[in-house]
Amino acid sequence: MKFGHTFNETLSSENFPLEWQAAAIQYRQLKKCIKRLQRELSELGLNVDTLKALISESESRGSHGAELHFQPKLVLTVHGRDGLQLDLGLSEETRRSLERLLQTRNRRASTASDLTCSSDDTASETTSETASETFSTVDSDGAKQKAQEPVSTIEIPLNNDTEFFHTLTSELSALDQVQSSAAKTIENEIVTIGNSVIAVATPMSLVSRSDLYPWREIFRVYLEMGIFFSNLEIEAHKERNVDDAQARLDKFLNEVERLGLRKSFKHKNSGVLFRRFFGVNEEVLRVLRFQAINKMAMMKILKKFDKRTAFGARQTFPMFVATTPFLAAHLAKAICFTMSSKLLTIIPQLDDYLCPICQSISIKPVRLSCSHVFCVRCLVKLQREAKRFCPMCRCDVVLHADVGNLDVGLLNFLKTYFPRETKEKQKENEHEVVLEQWRNVQLRTGAGMGKNAGDPGCMVM
């Protein structure tokens, strides 16, 4: 199946909005433009093989400077005064067409030279001569040197070539407007959902009903899936393709259902908010899918353009439109940044508040003078073992910590947003303290020296 048919079918089957479809690459129209350009070149006697030979000859002479803007045109450089001094196996028809263009060009240049001389009697012969011919060449260092033979250029007007790139550039501009509008709508929706989630996930110490824990788990699963970007540093956090992102979004939904998180909602609005959250991700995928298929259409049509003309537009044209927002790979990053800063971070995650030693919540957090935070039990153990240096930065601060290093603000924050974890951690600490006290009693009374290794010794009832 040809790409043009597949492209139009995809635009229809993906349920893209009508204004999106209207702004999409007009592949068939551009294809017709290429055919007209091919006929235009044929009338000049320039078939693909001839153009390839001419371009190869030009490239073998080296580049004559970098273009600062994209202007589609065909320029033939001719060395010598008498006709085409080229040995490229040109057909007689092609040679005659090019010689006619050269003669027309020389007559125009000569007329312009005569007008210049008549209007300015002080003009030198050299000046009038250079109006029709160029007697300098450019060496590999870019320095001008005197040449033995004149150099003329034939600029061949290609109307359909100009039409092709004007149409393609206009379509890219329209696509950029569609994409920017869709991205803005998505970002506004993300902010709105974030504000609503804050209301339903308020900590239970402040309201009677709260969906803090279901939403925290939903966001944790979402972040672990890495739907639009890889979470792995070894993969350089690369952007995922549309199909991979769709598969991960479906997996995220299945995991939410498996954990029963939607069923655990206490607020009826939470169910609605989850559907809106999932819908935002589907909308991001739709925008990315629309972007991907239009990028493919652009590359396909440029490939066809090169095949029919040998002009090399597939390598050249994208360089001049690389900064176009539609082609720049920043859409997913921008949306994901908004989602991360305005939605995913509104509910604190437990992993951000773990003690680096015991890897559990830092209940009764002690902040050392180096700013690193540890739970009080781990810090007490470090001090009992007379360890002076912070396990994180190796600063000599551990033995200087006292009750004044307790971070009361962080303690209250953890009790508010992690009530279950703080209670569980407090019970573990209390149990550990009891065991330590019991061991101390055994050491003082000698009860720990029973006959058998498994003898518990004296037990205080």
Task: Describe the structure in your own words.
The structure is a single chain. Helix 3 runs parallel beside helix 10, helix 7 runs parallel beside helix 12 (331-344) and helix 8 packs antiparallel against helix 9 (242-258). Helices cover 57% and strands 7% of the residues. The protein is built from 15 helices and 5 strands. The protein is elongated. Mean pLDDT is 79; it is low at 63-70, 121-147 and 453-461. It has a 3-stranded antiparallel beta sheet with strand order 1-3-2. The protein has a two-stranded antiparallel sheet with strand order 4-5. A hairpin with a 5-residue loop joins strand 2 and strand 3 (144-156). The protein has 461 residues and is mostly helical.
Order of secondary-structure elements: HHHHEHHEEHHHHHHEEHHH
Query: What value does the Rg take, in angstroms?
Result: 37 Å
Q: Percentage of helical residues?
A: 55-70%
Overall geometry: elongated
- Main beta sheet strand tally, sense and closure: 3 strands, antiparallel
**Terminal-residue CA separation:** 85 Å
Structure at a glance:
The protein contains 15 helices and five strands. It is mainly alpha-helical and 461 residues long. The chain is elongated and about 115 Å long.
List keywords for this structure.
mainly alpha; 5 strands; three-stranded antiparallel beta sheet; elongated; single chain; 461 residues
